[in-house]
Protein 1
Amino acid sequence: MRKRLIVSAAAGALALLLTVPAAAAPGGPGAAGIGDTYYPYAGNGGYNVSHYDIRLKYQPATDQLEGTATILATTTQDLTRFNLDFVLGVQEVLVNGRTAAFASTGESELQITPARPLAKGSPVTVVVRYADKPGEVERGGYSAWLRTPDGGVAANEPESAAWWYPSNDHPTDKATFDVSVLVPDGTQAISNGILTGQSSRAGWTRYNWRQTKPQATYLATLAIGKFDIRTDTTPGGLPVVTAYSKDLGDNDGAARASVERTGELVDWLSTYFGAYPFDSIGGYVPNVPTGYALETQTQIFYSPAQFARGSNTSTVVHELAHQWYGDSVSVQRWSDIWLNEGFARYAQWLWSEHENEGTAQELADYIYSYYPADNAFWTVKPGDPGPDHQFAGAVYDRGAVAVQALRNAVGDEKFFRILKGWPTERRFGNASIPQFQAYAERISGKPLGELFNTWLFTDSKPALSSAGVPAAPAAGAAASALAPSAKAQPQEPKSWKKIQETNSIHDSRH
Ligand code: ARG
Ligand code: ZN
């Protein structure tokens, strides 16, 4: 039932604009962003995706990618129009089987106008047919498609999905994935989860990958190239899939000696973080020239550079830790990145402790003294670093000092309960730093506002008298590892340089 406010025939067009719906929420275009202040165009309003079915054909010789993405979603409002995040050239869009109008904008938005408006709460099937050369598509001088001599790779954070499939590109909208890729015989295709099948016909081979657990869009990955793919299972029965470019040269041995320990390390991390949340685990090392690694869900992306100075189990531990802290429990907003990087770095410290290469406390002490108060390191707030510093060293290192400060403030027993309880309680969800603080306060029974404020939300070097200073264990230990006179210059822990190699390239393209 609608009520006209103005009924004058002369003002007909205006009258339509002023038509007020009596009951239902107004329909209209869905928002072009999900409301993340760091990335206003990340994600979209008006719907939630439950499943992506992505069928691709890729020719490494020409970089030609052809795709059909079928997206299953449910509307959260009446919609006359909605967006997907995508940068490649689109041929055709269908919504619920009917041809839909579409337009691409400069902000990586694909605007879709269905033939009929969509009602709130209804299931919707979107089919997008596309073709492009992803390596040639840039936004602000950036392309997320890493070309290699034998193919290409999509693995980056916070943005890479738009270079290979259209999506609601924000960690708060997780979905399951089927990725099926046709490549020339002799070339392999890698994506997340389990390789469910592989078949060849007329010179082309199809690889089918399946991720049955909720997965954030930036954690989906695609790699095409000449790989040695290995499948195995852990003693506990978890499938392990690892893959190595046949072109790793001098880094081949160190890469395998690190990534082949994935099953052992995932079991070790489970003792700290609780049951592993997904159905498989693994990692791949393509022949890319980049320096970082990425916690792509169950199929971790490693750059060969991570292994250029020998084996590097520390980085493997970092990316495996993200499977709990980052992938299963994901950020609510990108400003919550400390919940990912602070804990993945801290896992490296636990591994260092386990390997007798320096305790977490020693690493915290070392960082505290390594950066003088006037160093720009302390100007980045790990709890709100801003989009330009999302992957700054402080988010990792000061972020892990914050975790150690929490450990000292609540004591080991409570601390390890928090470390294991959080990913269990929040499994497959999203969470913010204030929610983590509330959880830690609930488990420890201590107010932690001052500690979080000091270590995460202050743009200067915290004083030695600060709450939860790493040197002040709550248990009341007398000796302070950070006593300024005694330990002004702590010794460099053995693991220090290796740990710094993880994501040594903290690029800040955003
Ligand atoms: N989350 C990744 C890691 O620390 C960092 C990715 C940084 N991205 C980049 N382009 N440098 O494991
Ligand atoms: Zn990380």
Protein 2
Amino acid sequence: MPLMGPSEMFAAAYAGRYAVGAFNVNNMEIVQGIMRAASEEKSPVILQVSAGARKYAGQTYIMKLVEAALAEDSSVPVGVHLDHGPSFEMCRDCIDGGFSSVMIDGSHLPYEENINLTKKVADYAHSKNVWVEAELGKLAGVEEHVKSAEHVYTDPDQAVDFVRRTGCDSLAVAIGTSHGAYKFQDDAKLDFARLETISAKLQGYPLVLHGASSVPQEFVALCNKYGGQVGGAKGVPEDMLRQAAGMGVCKINVDTDIRLALTASIRQFIAEHPDQFDPRSYLTPAREAVKSMVVHKIRNVMGSSGKA
Ligand code: G3H
Ligand code: 13P
Ligand code: ZN
């Protein structure tokens, strides 16, 4: 199966009340870990590339890694997606470079400016048959180019107007999740009533949930046991994500949990084998840790096992 756009993936996910996992990739081991998990679980998967990842690895390297992954196993549908595209130009470069979907993130802009930018990207993307995700509302937390101290939840009526006026194909909504490892000071809480209203107003339309790592405490503990300082971290409980997947959320984004799994594994290995310095020695179990984390997500969070 070649690279697949989200259109078919999300139609099946919407109807089947599951989600497709979109996992952030930065290097070969992460791509391999995710792809091996998707193959084993026979699950569709989206590999997503942030502006920071694109800068770190280079767009050509990332695309060649994806190509290699597809050549190794062509049995599962795979999408490659620009995560939080900051500008029309970067979206255009990714569209021209073979990405199957792009996100234009104008969520930090005033409403009309977000509309104008998103529409410009959607018009270009659609002329090349590429899918566009946009964002309305603000997630609290820090991203590379967007910083927001406060959540601004997505307004349901505005979401309808935004989708109609921009032509974006999927919409990331703000209902209480945030990026990174520190999502909630108190108990985890998502605004499901708002999600239900948005879904009802946008019947059949695929929604996206960012900031959806669960920050498993065993991985935080493992990091800290071997010298890390990941204090007070808290993520989105898995049952809440499953619930969202049954409410029109077709794509669930996970980055932090992969970082935690990879780093915990490397910390542990290096602490337990102080004599070893061959990168392959610690990257082999680290890649396996990414794979196990993604298998777990596919089975328990996305519900997409066997949907390839
Ligand atoms: O939404 C943000 C993603 O976790 C990507 O993070 O910009 O540090 O690569 P990054
Ligand atoms: P997490 O930080 O919760 O993994 O969210 C990742 C994300 O939304 C990438 O766009
Ligand atoms: Zn995000």
Protein 3
Amino acid sequence: MIVAIDGPAGSGKSTVAHAIADRCGLTYLDTGAMYRCVTLACLQRGIAPDDPEGTAEVARSISIEFVPAESGQTVLLDGQDVTADIRTPEVDRNVSAVSAVPAVRKAMVELQRAVGEQGDVVAEGRDIGTVVYPNAEVKVFLTADAEARAHRRAVQREGGDAAVDKSATADAAAEQAILADIKRRDQLDSTRKEAPLRPAEDAHHIDSSRLGVDEVVDRIVRLMEEAR
Ligand code: DC
């Protein structure tokens, strides 16, 4: 079975997709981490994020691996652990430009489909239900208001988890900066020409602003049972 979870930055896709993978024994595929790896490799090699040939060449030549770890998974770029390096503000600032390059997307979609052919997968991203796996048995479009998303990311950067600790706080200035970046990326990701962020026609919409992780996961597991 393929479960596609799409939605904007910080809507809770990772937490929810992880939980579903654990609970139902599916392989977890974080496609955002793949675009982040391409972006990091471009930054390391001095390739401009909006250079279509340079970024495409990087996307085709790097190796990206996911290794299960105690707290989620480790991301390897050409064999190096880049789990933390792909989540820096510098990568945040450049990833929209890199992921808007059609040839970069083509290379990543090929890798993502190869994973889907190997078995049961829960994949999260922006174009999973529309482009990568249009025949996914379950499609979810997960949203949350921008403030809720910025708060979650800010808490996460400080090592906490707002989904678990409802009273968690983060530095207010950092949270405002994250909110501005999230709004900017929402705009870029949903208005780009190639595979813009949009719900598939047959996607189930879930707003996680005021729902706990377990409630969202329960809803998706019910959709999976109905689809079997
Ligand atoms: O989910 P994330 O914030 O880690 O994703 C990082 C960026 O990658 C995001 O700004 C848009 C892009 N992305 C994409 O274009 N298509 C995907 N399937 C996943 C992510």
Protein 4
Amino acid sequence: MAIIMDGKALAKKVRLQVAEQAARLPRQPGLAVILVGDDPASAVYVRNKEKDCQQCGIRSLEYRLPAETSQQALLALIARLNEDPAADGILVQLPLPRHIDSRAVLEAIRPDKDADAFHPENAGRMLTGEPAVWPCTPAGVMELLHEYGISPAGKRCVVLGRSNIVGKPMALLLLRENGTVTVCHSATPDLEEATRRADILVSAVGRPGLIGAAQVKEGAVVIDVAINRTPEGRLCGDVDFDAVAPKASYITPVPGGVGPMTRAILMKNVLALAKMHQAEAK
Ligand code: NAP
């Protein structure tokens, strides 16, 4: 039976570490969070970020803008925050209303304040060097692997999904730690052939039941990034947990696995940006 990787407990530990380090900085770190419109799910995410900031001793600067806010006004706010030393990190909650070009908005955030690491300059640094921070979800997966003493080195790692925020940076992080990485997507001809070879399988697709026992190698580490909702309203991932857990060596639950880590890494990212800004200011 697999060991269940407890993302909730590790996230708490990370938040405590961030709080300890934030308290020792000469200036309190700050995160500006911008929410445009009244999407209920986004409002919950933003509230959670505020709560996390509070627990970590990070100042949360909140900007709640009406849905009809113009792109120009949003860009003007970002330009102001780019110059505001109180904001070490800037985060724009996605999705944005349709009339706003998300890409233009994300590109307007100064790369050294890009708490989510979505700016193309940071994406480039992921390929060619070291960005100051990595996208929260894949970085959270790496932190979980480290916590449980699992190294990708010499392992066959298979990542399902190739989005810019999860799949691609996940593959780069595993590669950086000497994993041999395969990335699969909707045009992969024989998914099962790939997943069955994985020593470490990371699924970030968004399809309940995609991974059952037959798709997993005996003793594999199975990381379920996906967050789906069943017709009954229950949260689940891509992996059939009950079927796969007896076969895997380690497995993440949904909820309580990767999700809490994503939130905790955001706090860690803001701390890292604040440290960088304060070192530069010396
Ligand atoms: P996304 O942008 O929709 O990407 C999904 C990926 O899955 C795409 O690359 C797609 O391939 C691939 N895919 C679709 N059907 C497939 C199939 N049958 N076999 C193999 N690959 C397939 O989603 P995302 O933003 O990366 O998020 C992925 C999942 O993770 C979602 O469930 C999301 O809710 C969850 N998520 C969780 C967290 C967290 O904190 N735990 C954070 C972010 C996202 P193509 O590129 O070919 O279309």
